[in-house]
Amino acid sequence: MSGRIGICPKCLEEFEGNYELCPHDGKKLVLTESGATARSGQCIDDKYTIVGHLGSGGMGSVYRAVQHSMEREVALKLLKKSLSEDRTVVRRFLQEAKSASKLSHPNVITLFDFGQTENGELYIVMELLDGKGLQELLNEEHRFSTARAIAVTSQICDALQAAHDAGVIHRDLKPDNVHVLQGAGQMGEFIKVLDFGIAKVAATQHTSQLTQTGSVCGTPAYMSPEQAMGYEIDARSDVYAAGILLYEMLSGAPPFVADTPVALMMAHARELPLPLSKARPELNIRPELDELLLKTLSKNADERPQNAAELKSKLQRILEGSETIRKQETIGSLHDIGVMPTEEHSVIAPPESDLQDANTMLSAGVVSENTLELLEATRSFNRLPWVIASLLAVVIIAILAYQLGGKNEKKNKKVEKVTAEKTIK
């Protein structure tokens, strides 16, 4: 798709692509081209050439570009020209570059460069990512399994903890700022956290603060109560946002929905989230996970996990506990049909009658086909020592018979020889 659209002055039909004449009446088309697409081929700061458009946001647009010196593709973000005269926005954009340059972690997008074009536009250059955004995945799949949601959230926590250790608060954590790469990481998915464009440096500043107490920056659906109210925030605000993401991944929707941004921020500040056990009882979310979610979404920051690392640790323990419970439930099912796991994780096969009962239970839907296969395989495995012992017995008997036969043959030959000698005499 070129992004260019031609309009016929006679029939007023629109044609997308490289048409110059109307296919219907041959009239010359009036061509239009979006500003984002029109930048294709533009050279930025004599170092980068734009080759495609990736997306646009509130502060600017992101392009696919080629870095001349390294001959590699990168993501290049340009600040909107209309905003470049706003000193506050420009300073915030520069803060994004400085904040991101402090971060060096696998789960945080890497910043390569930043600067200003000849036209005065500010830009920032980052690694180009494949994969999909978390928002795109949620739009396609609606919700994730518990294990997958915890795996994604755990990696987000790793990125946040690295940023918090460097004195940086994200302030705008949302699905659009989380990218999912395939083929690595937990459950085959590797997470990158993007866009520290409105991050606030938490360390004591000797320069003026860009985001003063009383102002509100961020996305209403993922704001902590203190952020929505314009209060001073710390790392626990990002922990709250991570809890919102986890809630949405598990249930398919964020905990608060409203018609206006102001109503949404007030919901974060005043309303209690509905536990997943009540919002989506059919999901059978484990009680300990439901409890942790409610604590993470507490209005009082002191009641939340106090940092991202703590949230990750608690999530991992819940996941490990779920695996243990699942194994115990499986063992309990095996107990019910006569299979007894030992400390060495071997099993003692049940008698033939029990296996027949198991076949009956399979027909009735009481046990699964996999369970029955396990029983039959176990029974065959436990027969193996008897088979080996029988084979050894046959071999030993054969050897003894051979040796005994040899001795008898020698004895017979000796008797024949003596008899012959007596006959001659």
Describe the structure.
Helices cover 45% and strands 16% of the residues. It contains 12 helices and 16 strands. The strands form 5 sheets. Strands 4-5-6-7-9-8 form a 6-stranded antiparallel β-sheet, with helices on one face. Strands 2-1-3 form a 3-stranded antiparallel β-sheet. It has a 3-stranded antiparallel β-sheet with strand order 10-12-13. A hairpin with a 6-residue loop joins strand 1 and strand 2 (14-16). Helix 4 packs antiparallel against helix 10 (308-336) and helix 11 runs antiparallel to helix 12. The model is unreliable at 200-214 and 342-356 (pLDDT under 50).
> Major sheet, described briefly?
6 strands, antiparallel
What kind of assembly state do the chains in view correspond to?
single chain
User: What order do the helices and strands follow?
Assistant: EEEHEEEEHEEEHHEEEEHHHHHHEEHH
Shape designation: extended
- Tell me the Rg in angstroms: 36 Å
What's the helix count? 12
Uncertain parts: 200-214, 342-356
Share in β-strands:
15-25%
Number of strands: 16
